[in-house]
Amino acid sequence: MRVFREVSLADSLTVLNALFGFSAITYVLLYGLRIEAFALFYFSTFADGLDGFIAKKTEKSPFGKELDSLADSISFGVFPATLMVRFDPNLFPFAALFLAFSILRLARFNVLKFSDFYGLPTLVSALIVTSLVRISVDYYFLAFASFILSFLMICDVVYPRISDAIAFAVVAVVLISAIFFVEMCYAILLLAGIYTAYPVIREVMEKWRERKLKKLLSKQE
To answer: Do the Cβ atoms of 10 and 54 come closer than 8 Å?
Structure first.
């Protein structure tokens, strides 16, 4: 079977991401909203982060990008949608929209050759939804949040690709802590919220710098 000869270490981690995501879905369906399901989801995020890091350091496989999106659709699309429906069956329409738009976002990512991201990454959306479910926000808030996140995933707003090792380490510590302390979900929401709002913050900062530069030039004149 030639396919196994073409699978790289990064691809193996991508498959592990999918397996953790599938395990989390299965756990939710069998046992409900227990910490084990969330822990499996966090493990899938670790695998996703590691496969990207290793892919940059080693030789890339011919189907790595497609495999990554397939795995992400399970862990960061199907799992959050399943979680929402298990949390409240009335959230099904919002969960279906979230899943549909996450798949669209991942498909577009595969065909675009772009260093950053168009639309909010599915991982960030999934972290927000899972954290909101875990802290048991009310139905209307979760419905509204998932609705907004769905459209942010397919919007044309540019989000930066984070490759800083320190940023990864901070996120890893927060996620590991979240396995043991539900309060760490607020830290996840804070970090994910800052990233989600980053394009707006960047735009405001650029306009502020332009105004400051114009004032400085006018004084010199």
So the answer is: yes
Instruction: Write out the residue range of the structural domain in which residue 148 sits.
Output: 3-220
Q: Is the C-alpha dihedral spanning 50, 126, 163, 182 positive or negative?
A: negative
Nearest CA among 110, 99, 50 for reference residue 75: 99
Phi/psi of residue 159, nearest 5 degrees: -115, 140
100-112 confidence digits (pLDDT tens): 999 999 988 877 7
Total structural domains in the chain?
1
SS3 159: strand
Distance separating alpha carbons of residues 34 and 40, to the nearest angstrom: 11
Exposure of 128 in the CB half-sphere (CA atoms within 13 A)? 27
Alpha-carbon distance of 181 to 199, in angstroms, equals 30
Tokens of 209: 């710098």
**Predicted model pTM:** 0.90
Distance separating alpha carbons of residues 23 and 104, to the nearest angstrom: 23
- What six digits make up the tokens of 68? 């990554």
CATH number of the structural domain spanning residue 199? 1.20.120
Which residues are CB-contacts of 164 (< 8 A; sequence separation ≥ 6)? none
pLDDT digits (tens, 9 = 90+) for 124-145: 999 999 999 999 999 999 999 9
Q: Do residues 125 and 108 lie in contact, with contact meaning Cβ atoms separated by under 8 Å?
A: no
